[in-house]
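Protocol step 4 of 6: structure prediction from sequence.
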Amino acid sequence: MTSKDKPVALESVQCDVCMKEVPVSEATVPEATDYVVHFCGLECYEKWKAQGEEAKAQPKRQTS
């Protein structure tokens, strides 16, 4: 008797930069509990980090 295994759907999250699907098993980090961002790789992480540094470098507008 032969049986075919059915594929199992993996739970996934999206990369916060390129929106690529990342398996939850690869994205889970026990140290990050308050605010979690997911990245599919170092390239997207570097883009996200650069955006944050760029935002900090821009002078804030004063409202009158």
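Step 5 (inspection) to follow. The longest strand covers residues 12-14.
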